[in-house]
Amino acid sequence: MQLNLGSYYISPIHPKDGWSVCNFAVANEDRLKRYFPKTLEQNLTPDLSNIFVEKKVKQFSTKEEFLFTIKQNESHNIVGLVYIKEVDKAKKQGEFAYAIDYTVEGKGLMTKSIEALSDYAFESIGLETLQIIVHKSNIGSLKVAEKNNFTWIATLHNKFTPPGEDPLNMELYELYHKIES
Q1: Owning domain of residue 9
Q2: Phi/psi at 162 (nearest 5 deg)?
Q3: pLDDT in tens, 143-159
Q4: What is the CATH number of the domain that holds 70?
Q5: pLDDT band at 180 (very low <50, low <70, confident <90, very high)
Q6: How many Cβ atoms are within 10 Å of 173's Cβ, its own excluded?
Q7: Domains in the chain, number
Q8: Which residue(s) pair with 85 in the sheet?
Q9: Cα 81 off chain centre by
Q10: C-alpha to C-alpha distance for 156 and 169, rounded to whole angstroms
């Protein structure tokens, strides 16, 4: 499976992505350390990234969690990661988490990626509710949610604690699959 985004494409995590994931994580360390500390710590060396990728490939195959990479067409370098996580099969619900490379921020790439992966989550995974949980200071992520027609639902008090910080309130946005009769 590969989703075309013009000069970029989205694909599921691949067993040979370890080196590229490591490069992405290290190059974007400052961007990842607050909201993606676990992803960052698991990808600080190529060996750690290979273990991370192996785990994520397995989780994808068992439909426990879905990690996608956003790559440049020409270089195949990873410029973004998108998770569909917290998958609850009973509720038919999942949560997006995403990070974009500093070199392509603000170009609408993540907005297009979430649009394409929302369709994928509804049609291929069978989810009916998608969530984005974001801090109000993350303007880019708020715009991704709003441009993809996610609706603000609630403020989640003390929902996330970044490393070395007090718990933060987070904003919950949801998108629902409208089943046509």
Answers
A1: 3-127
A2: -65, 155
A3: 999 999 999 999 999 99
A4: 3.40.630.30
A5: very low
A6: 22
A7: 1
A8: 95
A9: 5
A10: 5
